[in-house]
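[RESIDUES AND BACKBONE]
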Amino acid sequence: MFFAFRYPLAGAATPSLKQHIKRKEIYYVDYKVNLCFWTAYSFIRMPNTKDKRWKDSSRIAETKHFFNRVMRQEFHDNYKGFDFVNDIGNFINIEQVNEHIYIYESDLLHYELTQNYIVNDSDKQLNIIFTNDGINAHIMYISDVEALTGFRYCNICHKQAFRVGDSNLQISMGNHLKKCQKNGGKNIIKVILERFSKPFVPHILSNKTYKYLIANYLTNLFKSTQYFIKQDIEILEKNINEKFGDSSQVSATLIPYAIALTVKLASLVKVAIRRMQVKNDYKYKNEIIPQYYEVSVIGFNSAKFDTSVLFKNLKSKSWVISKYLRSSTIAKKIVMKRKCSIIELRFIDFKIYSMQNRLKDAVRDFGNGKYQKDRSPHEFVNVNNYIDELNKSELFLRDPFDNQLQKKNLSDAKYKDYLIETVKFTNR
């Protein structure tokens, strides 16, 4: 992904300048027209000394002469401001000055170098701070970069920075200056190969348990995925038909209304979230073996739709996505970790790792179980009534189970099974 941007025209003062002009390292001339770049440059041509301090009115008058000479035109009050895109090359070549632009990071509360414009064989340095309030831009002169930023910059490449408070400042800077002088100020990147090549095996190196067992010839102790959480999310489609820009439109969004979770443990199967028990079932008796706690949460055909629901509802300060493997259309694996726990949840889709196309076949071949389709009033429950209907305590009548589209009705035997099963629950 590429981002293209350009500096806005630098002109009159912005309201956010107050926090900067209090710094003694920043010089500022208060003037109502868009002359700030040229007044900043005037501090190079007309520096304040003990013997002579320039008044703002005199500095502005001389600055207009600089403008006329470089731009080859008379200065007018309707001047829009300095254009970095079109004017900077001409300016540094005529004046033979290196220009360094700094910005203020309001989130981090520090000043940072963002751009250099270098002229060969020139020792004149113009350091300026570029401020922008979203509408207007303004430029001021920096007299002491080191005091303002807390960093000392290389005087050859003007890019490498060293923290002033670093105890190894002189050594680090001396080593860099030797290389920088040898390379003519160019940043040369070298690829240093390992003495012994290492195989690319992220599935081993990312799992500290597997890594330890392989290194110690104990792979026979590795515990494969036997205990896991099985999830199935029932969703409803809500039509929204919202436009985003001129060419994008979202026709519908997915709303989860029911989630079924089954946890397979070493001793029993319960309907609940029991990730701690799954963790204990995977634990090794030998405490020397490092434990890698990753609980698989398996869905069937869940990569496309269920993933978007999970992202939306697991978005919180407590959870972070530690791994994310995906193709151009689906999420193959998502590993989420809670900040206050060492256990990771690995969301995967069974269909990605199997040739089985139907849930019925997968249950028969891998689960050693019997596939039984649930009885749910799919046509009766919709996006407008699902909250009220599913929270009711009375049982569904028989009619809501009818499938009008396929013209099928629920049999007496299946409805009796539904009545027996619902006794376990407090609501529908």
In short: The CA atoms of residues 236 and 342 lie 34 Å apart. The chain is about 25% helix and 25% strand.
